[in-house]
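Example record used in the benchmark description.
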Amino acid sequence: SLRGFFMTPKQNDVYLVIQEWWKKFGYAPSLNEIMMITGDRSKSNISRIIGCLVKQGALKKHPTMKRTVRPAHMRFKDVN
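Model output (structure tokens):
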């Protein structure tokens, strides 16, 4: 997890999936890919968790583009 942020175990799992996916592939995983890795069966639940993490400031995302959610500490050129 990220220092200074309280995360539930499920939020932490989703955060780590996104962080590791970025490190490996250079872009965000889809909701289906996150579901597959975490074992969750609800796309809306994953979306809700991501929304909570964005609201907390642990993740950032571009409001109109897909696959832009990323850990707030990561930088990339295409999406601000």
